[in-house]
Amino acid sequence: KNEVEQSPQNLTAQEGEFITINCSYSVGISALHWLQQHPGGGIVSLFMLSSGKKKHGRLIATINIQEKHSSLHITASHPRDSAVYICAVGTSGSRLTFGEGTQLTVNP
Amino acid sequence: NAGVTQTPKFRILKIGQSMTLQCTQDMNHNYMYWYRQDPGMGLKLIYYSVGAGITDKGEVPNGYNVSRSTTEDFPLRLELAAPSQTSVYFCASSNGRERETQYFGPGTRLLVL
Fold first, then answer.
1. Chain B residues whose beta carbon lies within 8 Å of the beta carbon of residue A48
2. Pairing relationship of beta strands B10-13 and B108-112 according to DSSP bridges
3. Which strands sit side by side in the sheet containing B64-66, from one edge to the other?
4. pLDDT for the residue numbered A1
5. Which residue from B43, B98, B102 is facing A45, i.e. has the nearest CB?
6. pLDDT in tens, B64-85
7. Quick one: B2 exposed, middle or buried, by C-beta within 10 A (0-12, 13-18, 19+)?
8. Which of A63, A82, B47, B113 has its C-alpha lying 20 to 30 A from B15's C-alpha?
9. Residue environment code for A28-51, b if the CB has 16+ CB neighbours within 10 A, otherwise e
10. What pLDDT, in 10s, does the model give residues A22-34?
11. Which of B42, B58, B106 sits opposite A41 (nearest CB)?
């Protein structure tokens, strides 16, 4: 079993829909990261969470430490949100463990 | 700032050849990482460094070597390339440990035939 599990693996939505991507992990963590990988391959960091909730524009990330679960929400989705979304967890130390990613396609 | 740069963007190697993937960052980050990404799989850590002169193995170090002689540069060396090393390689850097944002380079696509 992977330490980091994402669901769903693939997600197709219509423009304007509310989207949720889930991440569950099996180890104690000190930080959880959400990243976005563009269709061209580039990877950018979206959020780092250690507790609670963060919001940036139409993106919201939440984490429940007790349940070892995080969600990434996208409100009013747009075709430009189409990308792979990756969850990664950090334990003590400088290393991250990555999930396999969720491929999101938003159709106009 | 250019951020994290990687060269080359794409390379084809024959089995048994060697090459060095270059990675440079201009953010004065102490922490640098090499990952590989195989289709449908999560990023796997190959090697990392917490400062000049200090490197350590990640999850999948076999077949690779690294060095860190300066803060800016973190080259990854492939000796005796094998088809199993066909992958996309990403270099990343950060200002600290697991709570710090990692900044990624654009990636190097490597094909070993």
1. 99-101
2. parallel
3. B4-7, B19-25, B76-78, B64-66
4. 60
5. B102
6. 999 999 999 999 999 899 999 9
7. exposed
8. B47
9. ebebbbbbbbeeeeebebbbbbee
10. 999 998 888 999 9
11. B106
